[in-house]
Amino acid sequence: MKAAQKAKGLVCISFQSLLDHKLRSGLSTLGIICGVMAVLTMISIAEGAKQDLLLQIEQLGTKNIYLKPRVLTEQQKDQAGANLSAGLTPADAIRIRNGHGHVKDIALLNEVKATVLDTQSGAAPQVIAVSANYGEILGLGLARGRFVSAVDVDLKQPVCVLGASLAAQLGSRAAIGARIRIEDQLFKVVGTLKNVERKANTGKKAAISVRNYNDTIMIPFGLGVLVSPSEKTMAPLAPHPPGVSEIIVQVRDSGLVVSAAKRIRRIVRIAHNGVLDFQVIVPRELLRQARKTQRTFNLILGAIAGISLLVGGIGIMNIMLASVYERTREIGIRRAVGATRTDIVWHFLTESILLTAVGGVAGVFMGIITAAAVSRLGQWQTLITARAILLPVLMAVLVGVFFGIYPAVQASRMDPIKALRHE
């Protein structure tokens, strides 16, 4: 109890000493505030990026392997033509299924260049032709109706499934059995997807993006829009050319994804006569690469935040040394009335810790505001966790201890007689 009262009294005295020099104390905490703010913002951005990345990988599927056409130069196109490679086709999916025993299912997708005429002005939903198992592999739920079936694909039935946002926009025109005009053909609405909470990745450098299914119209695979080379106009909907925009291979076990991707790459490369006009994308590999990049990003931001805290700590040490010099006579009086060297060390060390603690708390509030601003203005997802708050405050207190020890020890080593004589 006596020790607790002594500690409480020491904190009160130290706090009052800081209040006696408000401006100096406030200025000395600026470096700590900036450092804590930087650390908290860094952690919140990193955590937000991590959660966003994990969500995207989960949406893409940890058991899935994606094959997409590669953008070729004119020289590469000539080489592909010379080697008789037609790019990705449904035949590649058959080869993959027959050539790999761990394949559970394969879905096909083709992006269709078509205009939906029944939407409001300015809306441009994407039309994609999909195989019957596409929704199951991607985990797309239905709000009502059904998905595209194998019969629809085989018979090229003009049916469609609407995304949640598009269905809400169309209202009664999106009811089951209603007709949607795509180019010059009417498609019967057979289903509506549930709202998909997926954040589309629109970055140009992204290897693969999460599709915005809420504004998508899905039609049976095998239907598309042909452009007449002579007239350069849209012809009625008809079977699309053999090219495929995306092949999704689902393996039986997520642990087999990497080895399966290597084998699939070899199968398709042989089928294309050695032409690399395709790319194999493994979400799990993307996760590993992104985590590596994120660690580098964290190290850079951590170094910046560490420098800010270092500058703040040096500032506090300078202020404390100046305070020790100004309060030499006070130190002499304290020693004269019975204060030990340890008491003097704890007194000045407590002031240093209080300065950094106050700066840490202020830095936390500033960091939360900064993280919110980054999220709003920079369109970056941020996530503030308990770790993001506690870690910078703990670092600030440790900075206070480290940089406060030297001034405190210097104060305790003063000769009491000389200190009393100091004017």
Beta strand %:
15-25%
- Give the SSE string: HHHEHHEEHEHEHEEEEEEHEHHHHH
Helix content: 40-55%
Q: How confident is the prediction overall: mean pLDDT? A: 77
Cα-based radius of gyration, to the nearest Å? 33 Å
Shape: elongated
By helix and strand content, what is the structural category? alpha+beta
Total DSSP E strands? 12
The number of distinct helices, counting runs of at least 4 residues, comes to 14
The termini sit apart by 38 Å
Low-confidence stretches: 202-207, 225-241
- Profile the largest sheet: 10 strands, mixed
Q: Classify the oligomer.
A: single chain
What does this structure look like?
By secondary structure, the protein is of the alpha+beta class. The protein has 14 helices and twelve strands. It has helices at 2-19, 22-28, 30-60, 74-82, 90-99, 134-138, 150-155, 164-170, 257-271, 283-326, 328-336, 341-377, 386-412, 416-421; strands at 64-69, 103-112, 126-130, 142-145, 159-162, 179-182, 185-193, 216-220, 223-227, 234-239, 246-251, 278-281. Strands 1, 2, 3, 4, 5, 6, 7, 8, 11 and 12 form a ten-stranded mixed sheet that branches. Strands 9-10 form a two-stranded antiparallel ribbon. The longest helix is centred in the C-terminal third of the chain and has 44 residues, at 283-326. The protein is elongated. Mean pLDDT is 77; it is low at 202-207 and 225-241.
